[in-house]
């Protein structure tokens, strides 16, 4: 009987691949911004681009539901639009600093992956019935 209970508990706590991809993209986003800071990019003392994805990821890890997935998707869209509109992204990519270019590229990949994975997680058929 114990095996049945363990299997049932594992099945209810398992996260769908789209949610795991969303969590991974949030983590990559935070790490890429830390990489930019380490490479010399100018950020505030408490960089919101690190804090916001980590908080969203923590909430998504704690409670995986429609609202936390939507929050993660919103974070990706919000930071993504900001990254595309600010001149800093272009400056980083044309800086000649290899570490800064790689970490900025990783940020853009993380943002794209976050939007795609977050949308896929949000639109999963029958997930939020």
Please state roughly what percent of the residues sit in beta strands, choosing from under 5%, 5-15%, 15-25%, 25-35%, 35-45% or over 45%. Answer: under 5%
Structural class: mainly alpha
Outline: elongated
Total of DSSP H or I helical runs spanning 4+ residues: 6
Distance between the termini: 29 Å
| Unreliable spans | none
**Whole-angstrom Rg:** 17 Å
Mean pLDDT: 90
Helix content: over 70%
Biggest beta-sheet profile = none
What is the strand tally? 0
SSE order, as H and E? HHHHHH
Descriptive account of the structure:
78% of the residues lie in helices and 0% in strands. It is built from six helices and no strands. Helix 2 packs parallel to helix 4.
Identify the notable features of this structure and list them briefly.
single chain, 129 residues, mainly alpha, 6 helices
Question: Helices and strands in order, then pairings?
Answer:
Elements: H1 2-13, H2 17-38, H3 48-62, H4 66-85, H5 87-93, H6 98-122
In short:
It is built from 6 helices and no strands. The protein is mostly helical and about 130 residues long.
């Amino acid at each position: 009987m114990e095996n049945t209970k363990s299997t049932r508990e594992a099945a209810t706590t398992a996260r769908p691949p789209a949610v795991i991809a969303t969590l991974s993209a949030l983590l990559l986003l935070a790490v890429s911004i830390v990489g930019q800071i380490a490479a010399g990019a100018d950020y505030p003392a408490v960089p919101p681009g690190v804090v916001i994805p980590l908080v969203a990821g923590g909430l998504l890890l704690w409670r995986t539901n429609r609202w936390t997935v939507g929050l993660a998707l919103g974070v990706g869209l919000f930071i993504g639009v900001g990254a595309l509109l600010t001149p800093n992204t272009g400056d980083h990519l044309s800086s000649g600093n290899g570490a800064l270019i790689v970490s900025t590229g990783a940020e853009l990949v993380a943002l794209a992956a976050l939007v795609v994975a977050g949308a896929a997680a949000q639109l999963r058929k029958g997930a939020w019935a």
